[in-house]
Amino acid sequence: MEQTYFRKGFGLRGAIAGALTADYHSRVVDAIRGAGYALRVGDLTFRLAGEFGFCYGVDRAVEYAYETRTKFPGKRTFLVGEIIHNPHVNHKLEAMGVQFLHRPDGGEFDFSAVTPADVVILPAFGVTVKDFARLRALGCVLVDTTCGSVLNVWKRVESYARDTFTALVHGKHYHEETKATSSQVNKYPGGRYVVVRDMNEARVVCDYIEGRGTRDGFIERFTEKMSPGFDPDRDLERVGVANQTTMLSGESLAIAAEIGKSMARRWGEAALAEHFRTFDTICSATQERQDAVLKLIAEPLDLMVVIGGYNSSNTTHLAAICQQKAPTYHIADATCIDSEGGSIRHRPVGEHAEMQKSHWLPDGPLTIGVTAGASTPNNKIGETIERIAALRGLSLDVP
Fold first, then answer.
1. Are 99 and 77 contacting, i.e. CB atoms less than 8 angstroms apart?
2. Is 177 an annotated catalytic residue?
3. Dist. CA 120–CA 275, nearest whole Å
4. Half-sphere exposure of 375 (CA within 13 A, CB side)
5. Which residues does residue 285 pair with via DSSP β-bridges, in sequence order?
6. CA 319 distance to own-chain centroid
7. What is the fold of 57-147?
8. Hey, what CATH topology would domain 149-282 get?
9. Of 109, 201, 221, 278, which is the most exposed, with the fewest CB atoms less than 10 Å away?
10. What is the CA radius of gyration of the chain?
11. For every one of its 399 residues, what pLDDT tens digit does the chain have, with 9 covering 90 and above?
């Protein structure tokens, strides 16, 4: 029988290396990294976080997508949603002939165009159990780029469902990864999940566990964030905590601790293991980038620039960390910086739309911190640094 499911790559890295370098490499970033993550140009000093940009999982997903086009040049190739949350990478794939399958808000992905003769790439976030089954039933070739860190969380959530624990997922209920993670409970009859966005929502769960709050109020609050038929009286007796891999690590750990305390008060310390489980499922790359930016902002900086897609969860969290210590500008890419008028288009922390700011770059000597989310290519980082330097009439002398 012909193999139709691939997860391991095709061994074509050599064939695509040139294209990847051309599309994503940056000599500017290489130079800054080689100079100890700092570069002085005129009266500007750029300091780059020690960990930034593409993580292993993103690297793998992008490489695998490029390999897929090389492996199946004559087949139509589709992608479920976006490969990662970076518009430039997705546009590159589109230019290579990859067609995107979209999911309307609140609806299902439309797979009607897919035939058994086609290839479908599954994104780094993964897909839901239901969507995977739908695609398998079509008989098409599936290339699965789901990140290994995400798969580790899935195994944890699946084990909760197997052992009749409700999966409490710290994440954004609308995010592709959280949708896919939550769906893992469906592998077992009676599997249940509830998604909490932050500590405020976690405390609503805690209140209910400890006998406060109303059933109707709880169901209304979490109506789009819990499994069908969720019964808080039944389904909050045994809870296992997991999280979207790109959330703020400290927040996830604090939420888990809060839930654990409530369960201990409700059931007693001696019985806690029967009612509560938790594991830190933040991915190492997310943690490393958060740690690196904390180290960077511990030193004096005049401002921070965070580069990455506005729908990238790990990028928005990096911006939130930076905002605590320095004026922070989260931009999609270098085109957000107006090299003529000196303004910047950025998305402020906590906002949902871009804003324009004039005179954002103060006069005089400046130390500018730079970091980027795990889905941001190096060339977009380098272009941003070059454009900031150009605002002062400076050019980077990079070999």
1. yes
2. yes
3. 40
4. 25
5. none
6. 13
7. Rossmann fold (3.40.50)
8. Cobalt-precorrin-4 Transmethylase; domain 1 (3.40.1010)
9. 221
10. 23
11. 578 999 998 999 999 999 999 999 999 999 999 999 999 999 999 999 999 999 999 999 999 999 999 999 999 999 999 999 999 999 999 999 999 999 887 789 999 999 999 999 999 999 999 999 999 999 999 999 999 999 999 999 999 999 999 999 999 999 999 999 999 999 999 999 999 999 999 999 999 999 999 999 999 999 999 999 999 999 999 999 999 998 988 899 999 999 999 999 999 999 999 999 998 777 888 899 999 999 999 999 999 999 999 999 999 999 999 999 999 999 999 999 998 878 999 999 999 999 999 999 999 999 999 999 999 999 999 999 999 999 999 998 776
| Domains 35-55+285-391 and 57-147 in one fold | no
Query: What's the rounded Cα separation, in Å, for the pair 372 and 318?
Result: 8
**Cα–Cα distance between 143 and 399 in angstroms, integer?**
38
Catalytic residue among 63, 158, 177, 383: 177
Asked if 50 and 287 count as a contact pair (C-beta separation under 8 A), the reply is no
Contact 71/391 with Cβ under 8 angstroms?
Answer: no
